[in-house]
Amino acid sequence: MNDKVYPVLDDFSITGSGIFHWLGKRLNQGGASTRSNSIWVLIMMAITWLPLLVLSALQGLTFSDKVDIPFWKDFAIHSRFLIILPLLLFAARPFDFKLIDLTKQFFKSGILDEKDLGGYAEIRKKIKDLTDSIWPDILILMVIVLNLIFRFISAGESQISIWIFLPGSVSSSMSWAGIYLAIICAPIFQFVLIRWIWHWIIWFIYFKKLASLPLELNSAHPAQGLQG
Known about the structure:
Number of helices: 7
Order of helices and strands: HHHHHHH
Radius of gyration: 23 Å
Helix content: 55-70%
Structural class: mainly alpha
Strand content: under 5%
Oligomer: single chain
Shape: elongated
Number of strands: 0
Distance between the termini: 33 Å
């Protein structure tokens, strides 16, 4: 018979917050099921990569030989929006599942027990305050705006012609696809990427705080090194 007491972890999440999580909930997507996650990923690909293909095609920049790098040759763009972005979006559920599983192991193995529930509840509250705070999103958006200004100024000074700019106007007129990339696609990708950095920072803070609790360790347990 197992008399161990565990905290309620079903609603524990580090990734379940922020602008994209809110948007997904508004669209009834990005939920806990694989189906809703898959639809959410397809929506994001349709919002980012697909319009770039269409807009570059409308101005003849998809397969054009008038620029050094037409759209189809820009493998960095394809990898960002067809591979990296979907992977980052899909990773949210496994990330939270692993977080819950590792937390349960602390209690199942006896490293933490019933007397630690109060301290653990305080840690959970602090982590929830971090995940629910709007300030990380505001700071991320500020970083994105500054970064995009710098990157597109630098791109305009480049001697290599690319589909982002119209042929013959490397340093001035952006193409339709280039404008869409600047105001929609690049901010979305950078926001998701930087938000993941924030998730990992919270992950580190969470387990660092767990390690500060009076852990019941023994020399045979693999978690011995958690408490220094």
